[in-house]
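Batch manifest, entry 17 of 40.
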Amino acid sequence: MFLRLVGFSFLRRKRRRAVILAAVALGTSAAAALGDIALDIGDKISGELNSFGANLVVLPKGGAAQVVVGGEDVSALRAPSYLDASALGSVRDNFWKNNILAFAPILDVPARLDLPGAGGRAVLLRGTWFDREVAENGPPLRTGVRALNPYWSVAGTWPRESPVAGRAVTAPDEALAGSGLARALDIRPGERLSIEVAGRPEHLLITGILTAGGEEDDAILVPIETAWTLSGLDGRVSRVFVRALTTPESAVYERLGTRPREMRPEEFERWTCTPFPSSIAFELSRAVPRAEARVIRRVAESEGIILDRISGLMAIIALLAATASALAVTSALSTNVLERRTEIGLLKAMGAGNPRVVGLFLAEAVVLGLAGGLLGAVGGGLMARFISASVFGAPVTIRPFALPLAVAVALVITIGGSIVPARRILTFRPAEVLRGL
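Output type: structure tokens
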């Protein structure tokens, strides 16, 4: 009998039920879409922030430590330390090798430009990889500063590099001039510069003007083999910049990550098995001989802050959508209760207690919630894929638990919207409702 009453209610008031179903489905769709995006946004944001450049740097062990004597920092007086270029392949020889997106070795050496009529000018000469393919310790990876810093722009062409037998045979006189240096000296692509490094003169052909937005704008960039030849530091590397796919670090593990030895075994295992910037830096320090890896906090923290803010914004929007849907359901169900007050009075007069009458309306709300949840899950999935494709250029991956989660949200919306109408039902008295019939 109870189920027949529920069925008759749907058959008699189709338009009212359609309005409630639409409100639940729309609210659930918005919440489900934002939920699907939130579950997949970490990798999407990390991919978008690749243009920020490296988020890790590998340094010679102890070479980056501060040296203080008598309260004075004398680090500048220390002999420079270098990494061995033969160990560059070890960057990908660790547990997180599949998370390494790009890396580039750096060799910085002081140089002096010979300017006609103006004497000499000190300048930084930076040797690096521009665009190389690395096949060691994994599938071939196209890497270098072009892959590491996709936002860099060059007016002209990049210096040529032709890897042969594991080493690059480069045109030794090709280079990039930073945009700041080019403006100061009126350098244009195609010009030749006379440069002296460690007493070795060389003529460099400027193939392009680099705009990087950093210290590279005041430097000259050459293939690392050119820097080795000019400086006499063959096979030496000052540092290695690395871009890795990471998960924003939680405050707890950010604190513990600086002291892995102090972690409990279960904490250490969880930390090392999660791609936090600090855990990847830890593995790089173990993999590269005589090196220590550090997190570039500016980039890593920016990813975490952006992700937290976007996730918070989506949570607020989803909550507002669910609240608006619940208010619409409350309004529709309240009107429905007022329209059916005679029916409610008859049920109570025939012996149906408040729990049974309220249960009848809640059963109707649950049916609407289940149907609205299924429609909202489908609509939310389509909406999430459209939004993700428009913003990130790739659709999100819909998780298997998205469907039951959407149905649960729909049930919360409908039951939450039924609270006020249910309280109104409790106030109806049969004698007052049926008077005058």
